Amino acid sequence: MAAEQVEDATARLYLAIGRLSRLLRRTGSPGLGPGAVSALATLARCGPMRLGDLAAKEGVAPPTLSRIVAALVEAGYVKRDPDPQDGRAWLATPTPEGVTMVSGVRSARVQELQRRIEELSPEHRTALVNALPALEELVGEVG
User: Fold this and answer.
1) C or N: which end of the chain has fewer Cβ atoms within 10 Å?
2) How far is CA 104 from CA 28, 43, 95, 111, 128, in A?
3) Which strand (E) or helix (H) includes residue 79?
4) Whole-model pTM?
5) What pLDDT, in 10s, does the model give residues 53-102?
6) Alpha carbons 93 and 37: distance in angstroms, whole number
7) Rg (CA), the chain
8) pLDDT digit string (tens) for 99-127?
């Protein structure tokens, strides 16, 4: 494939992934922004963690994440527990309601994505499935 074709395909892929991501973020997240849903999903998946560790995992500044976690605490989706290793620190812990909410958002988003995939032609569905190993490798999920 010529360099020009790769450049064009890269730009198209970037735009398509961005649009798909925005579309799915708007699905099933009542009252929470994408940053809050992402942070809550990380806590639900990884378990309790310090604010700094969560900020690093999410790739955001600690003050930004502090505001996000405060909103999640206020909504009842996260609680603050003392850090057993350091009494001066605390751990953000998802509540059962938070875990349920993330599960519902994830389910709604997966269902929306599945609905859209099912609307594709058989050829496009096959091409998408065949592209999964390359996409997983791009984000480091292979092996």
Assistant:
1) C
2) 7, 15, 14, 10, 25
3) strand 78-83
4) 0.67
5) 999 999 999 999 999 999 999 999 999 999 888 888 899 999 999 999 98
6) 14
7) 19
8) 999 888 888 888 999 999 999 999 999 99
Q: Which long-range contacts (CB under 8 A, 24 or more apart) does 41-49 make?
A: 41/102, 41/105, 41/106, 43/78, 43/92, 43/93, 43/94, 43/98, 44/94, 44/98, 44/99, 44/102, 44/103, 47/93, 48/81, 48/91, 48/92, 48/93, 48/94, 49/91, 49/92
Q: What is the average pLDDT value for the chain, to the nearest integer?
A: 90
In which residue are the tokens 């790769």 written?
Answer: 6
